[in-house]
Structure formats: structure tokens, C-alpha cells
User: What shape does this take?
Amino acid sequence: MLNRAVGRRTLFASAADYEAFVETVAEALRTRPMRICGYCVMPNHWHMVLWPEHDGDLSAFVQHFTNLHVKRWKLAHHEVGHGHLYQGRFKSFPIQTDDSFHTVVRYVERNPLRANLVARAEAWPWSSLGQASPTEPIPLAGWPVPAPAERLREERIEWVNQPQTEGELARLQSCASRGQPFGEQGWVTRVAAELNLATTLRPRGRPRAEQTKAQSG
Assistant: This one.
């Protein structure tokens, strides 16, 4: 899942801004438990890979910590009453618990490297890969699948730093923007039907004239 600042404005301009955000997330976990498998906070947006236990947990957790973050950010930046901070409701998509899960976590943790903010992904401290320990500042949960090939941390770091293909990036970005399930095609089709997400699989744009005629006639 992810959310962006309205108008792509800068949300996090200093270490204090990043620290305030992760502290807010850690505080929210104490009252709204959630398994956080991976995350990355960027200058104008953030990503999280969450593993909720019950229906409704995901929305309740994200709404709780984003509401806290907005209030505190506006107070710290003297913008109380100045309109929205986020561009809208967060975006999310289901992930198949196989190698697809590894791919999504890698995509999230590669964000600072892809944006040329660091030379190595693990050098970005505001991410699950870069934070000092699995418990601080944000407690990280175990994954619903084993780490790739049971990689040691050093091997996983090297794997995250390897480039992703253009096709893989395009597919992930489409899922993030449209809410499409991410996984093998058969799984995607089945989950889209079960979760009423079939429209996310349809091509963008208006249908061709002959298709429209056939549908309306």
C-alpha cells in the first residue's frame, strides 16, 4: 500500500519529519496491532507491505496512524486549517504469498535507490531494509513466506540492490495505481473475482466504438 502528499509536495524534508512519522506508526501499533513486513518512507510518499489478521484491520490501522500523522505534521509545520496533506485515501493491492511477495518487498525497499537518493538501498535509514534492527524504530513482523532461498541478511541486501526489469516495474506500478492483485495469472483472476476487483484488470480508456455498440445493442 502507499499514499502520497497532495500535489506531490514534500512531506519529509528533514530527519525530524521522518522520525516523527515512524514514531507515529510505532505508537499506532500499540493500539491497532498490525504485522508490518516491509516499509519505505520517501520525501513525498510512503510504502508499506502489511499482513492483516482480520477483515477491516488494514483500513483501521492505516486510518489511525495517518490521522495522527496529519495532525502532528500540520501542527509542527504551522499548517493547521490549510487543507489536505495527503492526495486522498491510501492505495493498496493484494499480493500472492509466493515469490510475488518477495518481489513486492524488494520493490518497496529499492525505492530510494531507484530515486537516486542513495548508492545502496540499505543506506536509506527510513525503510525496513535500512533500519538498525528488526524491532526499532518500527517492529517488523515475520513474512507469510520464507525469505528468498532462506537468504542471510547480507545476501538479501545484495538481492534488493540488483536492478528490476522494466516489465516487472511496469506491472508493479500498475498494481499500485489501480489496485490490481499481484501474483500468477490464475491467482490474480480468482482473487479479483472474490474481492470484487475485476474492473482493475480491464484495459484503461474508453472501449472501441464497435464494442460499445455491441454492448448497448
